[in-house]
Amino acid sequence: METGTLISLALYFIAMLAIGLYAYQKSTGDASGYMLGGRSLPPSVAALSAGASDMSGWILMGLPGAMFVTGLSSSWIAIGLIIGAWCNYLLVAPRLRVYTEYANDSITIPDYFANRFEDRGHALRIVSALVIIIFFTLYTSSGVVAGGKLFESSFGMSYESGLYITTGVVVLYTLFGGFLAVSLTDFVQGCIMFIALILVPTVTFSLLDNPIAETLNAINPQMFSWIGAGSLIGIVSAASWGLGYFGQPHIIVRFMSVRSVKDMPTMRRIGMSWMIVSAVGAVATGLFGAAYAAEKGLVVKDPETIFLILSQLLFHPLIAGFLLAAILAAIMSTISSQLLVSSSSLTEDFYKIFIRPTASDKELVLVGRISVAVVAVLAIYLAYDRESTILDLVSNAWAGFGAAFGPLVLISLMWSRMNFFGALAGMVAGAVTVLAWIYTPVTINGQSLSSLLYEIVPGFIVATVAIVVVSLLTPPPRKEVTDLFDKVQQAL
């Protein structure tokens, strides 16, 4: 590998560790500071942190790869995600920021559920915390695998070395700096991703010899079609990814951390601008990359590496190193968020509730740091098997979170009549529906249910119906609960 590329990557790693050290000195004195940044993040940091932790390697590898293969029809996923994120900022963000502060200063999503629905028996807290810990451990493992493969393919290092380097750097700044370190590194990583997703497609387009429509039509006439070889149901499935936003703990926890609800419009404008430009850049990278490869006779064995290939071919080694850092930034920003959310649930929803209810803030911060290390070790262990079916399960985790938590979060913030029984029924119904849709051995014309319609659609619908029906069939919440709901609405 070129010296310039290595220099760029070394500077990137040093910057991430320096931010972790800065955050360690600033805000790790209590549990709220370590796990939620003391609810003091400026809107710019919160917005880019939410975006960077959301997109992961998908925005730089997955979406360009899909566009490279199928063309414009894959862009419906990006369109659905943009609409979903916008609705999340409008409907969930301000309400969750106020409600979690008023509801006994809830600092985790299970904590919010427990306080919102007076979960004295801890059933909601346990079920939601288990969902978070299990799925996020798998999610984290997926990110670690991506880092291992990136180091293996780009640096000629062993896959295992890549696992340890990727995880080691993330664990260091997450373990010591907590939520503030994760958010600040996410901000920097979001800026790197933003620049990279403008630079690569712009340069690639400038080097094309022929009109892009002409080149893509020569490859496949359906490449430039919004429908492609799919169907209306296929478009609905792709666009329905946006439903998942309401239930992603590592994203919505950013809404809880911003310094004031008055900052929400600014956070929304910054976050949505970043997301739209990044999504368009990812779509353009795939399309322009397909045209460039066709014109130059470039053989691309793995379409998901098109961003990496263009970076190495078209740019000076120093800039190529910066662009490679963008891929690492996408991977690491999501791993760090998932580690911290898992750690927060282990600390607040298990250790504090069942083991040491009287634990001091200093003790909880220590347990939180230990939990970060434990989840990271588990993720590395799972990542050692590159062919593990865990990665197949992770591909469905977005739907699992979206169906189990999405309707629950959304309705709990907007309907005072929703009660504990409705919340529990909705969470279980959503998760079970998603799993059944994926694994039930039922086929239609030889196709599985999951291949016909993305499982988040039936999961979200069933969970919503369960919440409404069960809440109406069981006793209403106590007056103190509805009074708190009214207080939150007045504060908005």
UniProtKB/TrEMBL annotation:
Localization: Cell inner membrane; Cell membrane
Origin: domain of life: Bacteria
Keyword terms, alphabetized: Amino-acid transport, Cell inner membrane, Cell membrane, Ion transport, Membrane, Sodium, Sodium transport, Symport, Transmembrane, Transmembrane helix, Transport
Annotated transmembrane regions: 6-24, 75-92, 123-142, 162-184, 191-208, 223-246, 272-294, 306-331, 364-384, 396-413, 420-440, 452-473
Reactions catalysed, as given in the entry: L-proline(in) + Na(+)(in) = L-proline(out) + Na(+)(out)
Membrane topology of this protein: Multi-pass membrane protein
Entries under InterPro entries matching the protein: Na/Glc_symporter_sf (IPR038377), Na/Pro_symporter (IPR011851), Na/solute_symporter (IPR001734), Na/solute_symporter_CS (IPR018212), Sodium:Solute_Symporter (IPR050277)
Summary of the function given for this chain in its UniProt record: Catalyzes the sodium-dependent uptake of extracellular L-proline.
Family stated for the protein in its record: Belongs to the sodium:solute symporter (SSF) (TC 2.A.21) family.
Protein's name in the database: Sodium/proline symporter
Species in which this protein is naturally found: Pseudoalteromonas fenneropenaei
Gene: putP
